[in-house]
Design brief:
Blueprint: E1 4-8, H1 13-20, E2 28-32, H2 44-50, E3 59-65, H3 69-75, E4 82-86, H4 90-100, E5 103-109, H5 113-116, E6 128-132, E7 156-158, E8 175-179, H6 192-202
């Protein structure tokens, strides 16, 4: 059974309120904090207003790509539960975790087996290891069988162009499942009907 759902790339109050009040809410909601290439990126002041809402027990995740000290000093005021870090060394990850007293999701981008092995450098530092495709602002698939050698003891999450109908493929895996692009309409905005379908469907596969 899967551990739960993360919905990433939320950028408007209507969608956020809908998710927070859903009968079967996700475990995590992610916000693109500093990666301006992404269509889901949120300017700081808008983000500040967005995340000042009552969270109803859901963990809010700040998605950060190689963040500098300036953005980290700003983001600390928003009281995120997790920082999801891309392109950050193990040494700097440890510094960020200790300085800001925040839980860490280390995001590794995967295209070959050697990429997977990098988790060993972070498993003692990070609270969750996320295995994602190489697309960053684009949802890109990778071969999930590359993860078969990872020990069950690792607290892990998986992303990379995962569709709602893919959820049953993970029923025997202890992953958190991270979705974003597959929950959007043709204009690239989050679709409440798709989010509702996901949350009602996924609950059948959660531990």
């Amino acid at each position: 059974m899967i551990k739960g759902i993360k919905i990433c790339g939320i950028s408007d109050p209507k969608t956020l309120i809908y998710i927070l009040n859903h009968q079967y809410p996700p475990k995590f909601i992610g916000f693109i904090t500093n990666y301006k290439k992404s269509k889901r990126y949120i300017e700081y002041e808008k983000l500040k207003n967005l995340v000042s809402i009552k969270r109803n027990g859901i963990d809010f995740v700040s998605v950060l790509v190689n963040p500098d000290d300036k953005i980290l000093e700003k983001v600390k005021e928003l009281k995120f539960d997790f920082y999801q870090l891309y392109d950050v060394s193990p040494e700097r990850t440890k510094i960020i975790k200790e300085k800001y007293n925040v839980k860490i999701i280390t995001a590794l981008t995967i295209s070959k087996q050697q990429d997977v092995a990098a988790y060993k450098n972070y498993e003692e530092i990070s609270d969750i290891i996320l295995f994602d495709g190489k697309g960053y602002e684009k949802s890109v698939k990778f071969n999930h069988e590359l993860l078969n050698s990872i020990p069950n003891s690792l607290n892990k999450m998986i992303a990379g162009d995962i569709k709602i109908e893919d959820i049953p493929n993970f029923k025997n895996k202890d992953y958190f499942i991270d979705l974003s692009g597959s929950l959007e309409n043709e204009e690239g905005k989050k679709d409440l009907n798709k989010i509702n379908k996901l949350l009602n469907f996924a609950i059948n596969y959660e531990a």
